[in-house]
Amino acid sequence: MTAKQKIIIALLASLIFTGCRAQEPPKPQDMEEKTEITEDTVQDTEKEAGVHEETKENADQPALLEPLKLSGKAVGIEAHIKEVKEQEILISSDCDDFPGAFAVEVPESVFDVSLLMGGTPVRIVMEEKEGTGENTKYQARGIEIVQEQEETAASGEEVPRLSPPSFVLGDPWSSIAASFEIHPGNYNWNYKDGDEMAGVIACGVHPLDDIEREKLKLPRYNGMEAVIYMLSTDVSPDMLIINVWDAEDIGNTQAETGAELTLYFPVSMLELEIGKVYEFTAVWAQEKLEQRGFYGDAGYTLVTE
Questions:
Q1: Helix (H) or strand (E) holding 189
Q2: How many CA atoms lie less than 13 Å away from 194 in the CB half-sphere?
Q3: φ, ψ of residue 4 in degrees (nearest 5)
Q4: What CATH class is the domain 72-145?
Q5: Which residue among 1, 15, 195, 250 is least packed, with the fewest CB closer than 10 Å?
Q6: 99 vs 56, which has greater pLDDT?
Q7: What is the largest CA-CA distance in the chain?
Q8: DSSP at 175
Q9: Alpha-carbon distance 139 to 118, whole Å?
Q10: CA 16 to chain centre
């Protein structure tokens, strides 16, 4: 990708905001009501409640501006730099779900470490390189310095979100303002209903079940193997797990995943490939129930051609 393309993508990313199987859903507490529905009967209850008029949380959560490569096994966290030594950095995780200090090798092609110093807040995507446990070393895939953001107060009356939000994919290179929407299949959703709690469970299908699905047809730009798509949603999840299979695995629910990425911060750009099955498992933390009025997890499936 050229420097010009990266600048264009970063500008586009600044205009939109975005992180049942892969994650054990949190157990709802004090439930007034729990409804079970199937994927075929899931309706867009958000429209009935006028949820689309609410203030979007994403304005306070800028996403990673570099395209995320969906391959191999990697984790993305927010952290602070503790030490910089040549092409290796020592970071301290700011993520409660992925705590610890980690030694990370940074290839010159990934990031200029001379821009880092002790105390610098970063978002980093990294993969295991060698060792196990406390001695594990990582290699960086992408690093972004986190800029301080002014806190903005939410405005308007809180409207309960009755089901998980959809994900929207858009092609930043296309002259046609078209988008592809992915609706949740499996989910366990809990929300405030006055002074009580209510919830809903949707039981969908496995991402590799051989059923009729709407597929995202990827364009071919100058023979590129991967195409960059913008990812957005109304409320960024606190954790996003992405699993990837070959489309040839459809029908074999026991097939091993070809890639697994776990992200603890929002991401706005993905590199998608033709002939793949992507599963997104999003988690909205129960600890933020008072702030948001809801919590839960949801699974989304995308098939490309």
A1: strand 187-193
A2: 3
A3: -65, -40
A4: mainly beta
A5: 195
A6: 99
A7: 57
A8: S
A9: 19
A10: 14
